[in-house]
Write a structure and sequence with these properties.
Helix content is about 40%, strand content about 20%. Strand 1 and strand 2 form a beta hairpin. The chain is built from 13 helices and twelve strands. It is globular, with a radius of gyration of 24 Å. It is an alpha/beta fold. The strands form two sheets. Strands 3, 4, 5, 6, 7, 8, 9, 10, 11 and 12 form a ten-stranded mixed β-sheet that branches. A two-stranded antiparallel ribbon has the order 1-2.
Length: about 350
């Protein structure tokens, strides 16, 4: 039976050897043959006993987690995804009673880290930060080494945040209309950066280009921090940055903010208008993040992680830390998260098609 993306299997003793291998069950070939001749009930009991003996205590509801858990962040240290994930990891570790070790695996707009997680052992000890970028990738790449919708058990949302269009102070534009006019006066001469092809900053800018009819040159970076350094240094003109990693530079005057992509202004930067206020009608992009695990992860571990997430996201101190970074803490049921992910995949497939964005 399949429920969401968690598949539950009824073990058939006739297929036990083919599925697991006689040696993996602790039996020799002769023993495997004898298993097939036993009554169904006796065989099921025997196979179940062998599986229990071979299964670590971490699979039991009261034993997981018995050691540190790895949280794969598919972007570099210092990126907005990393900043928020580390806040969650600290609180989630408290709820689980174990250390959550953040493992940054940047590259290809999140593809490297996602692929690493997809191929990890499905034992509950590898969790992936699964967000908007994973729903963009299927439309942007002709072939992926994994299926972001089918190769994972999706657990819950944990945060939403806007992107913010920032420019270097030398750019003579203090509003969206001025920026568009400047770009149209110099088509193809202005450069914008992103945290990789397929990342939300890339697609947000491509959407913006489609809506405004401007032509900018895309410069992708493996690690967002490298690109932001280039932008602050004046080697780039613009960037649709995730809000958490832009706040400091904007407040310090190192970058100028033109607009946020949320429906309402960000509390942290109340003087910065929304894209809609700036004349772009229904232009709204919400960046979101959640957690997922390899598909075959034991249901008990998945349930434990989900419960710990709900508890962590309800904590006042986590909500405050998220809020300080421009992030709204939010949890969801697994079923609701799956529906949301599918809807986002459809939405971004349309944006990719309309914008003409492609892997360069």
């Amino acid at each position: 039976m399949t429920h969401g993306y968690v598949r539950e299997a009824c073990f058939d003793p006739r297929g036990a050897r083919a599925l697991f291998g006689a040696r993996n069950l602790g039996y020799g070939c002769g023993d495997a043959q004898r298993i097939a001749r036993l009554s169904r009930r006796a065989a099921c009991r025997l196979v179940a006993a062998a599986l229990c003996a071979a299964t670590p205590a971490a699979y039991s509801a009261d034993g997981y987690p018995s050691r540190p858990v790895r949280l794969i962040v598919p972007f570099g240290a210092g990126a907005a995804t990393d900043i928020v994930a580390r806040v969650l990891a600290a609180k989630l570790g408290e709820s689980l009673g174990q250390t959550i070790v953040v493992d940054n695996r940047p590259g290809a707009g999140g593809l490297v880290g996602t692929d690493t997680a997809a191929k990890a052992a499905p034992d509950g000890y590898t969790i992936l930060v699964f967000g908007i970028n994973q729903t963009i990738a299927p439309a942007l790449y002709k072939k992926l080494p994994y299926d972001p919708l089918r190769d994972f058990a999706h657990i819950s949302l944990y945060g939403t945040l806007p992107n913010i269009l920032v420019v270097h102070p030398s750019v003579p534009a203090k509003s969206i209309s001025e920026f568009v006019a400047l770009a149209k006066a110099k088509p193809g001469s202005m450069k914008y950066g992103s945290s990789g092809i397929g990342a939300s900053p890339h697609l947000t800018m491509e959407y913006f280009k489609t809506r405004t009819g401007i032509d900018l040159v895309h410069i992708p970076y493996k690690v967002a921090a490298q690109g932001i350094t280039e932008l602050v240094g004046g080697n780039l003109h613009a960037w649709f940055n995730n809000l958490p990693s832009a706040i400091g530079n904007v407040k310090a005057g190192r970058l100028r903010a033109l607009a946020v992509t949320s429906a309402k202004r960000a509390e942290q930067l109340p003087d910065v208008p929304t894209m809609m206020e700036s004349g772009l009608g229904d232009f709204e992009v919400t960046v979101w993040q959640g957690l997922a695990v390899p598909l075959a992860t034991p249901p008990t571990a998945i349930a434990r992680i989900h419960d710990a997430m709900v508890k962590s996201l309800a904590a006042p101190d986590l909500k405050q830390k998220f809020g300080d970074n421009g992030v709204t803490a939010v949890s969801s049921t697994r079923e609701a998260f799956v529906k949301f992910i599918h809807a986002e995949a459809v939405k971004w497939a349309r944006v990719v098609k309309e914008s003409g964005a492609r892997v360069e």
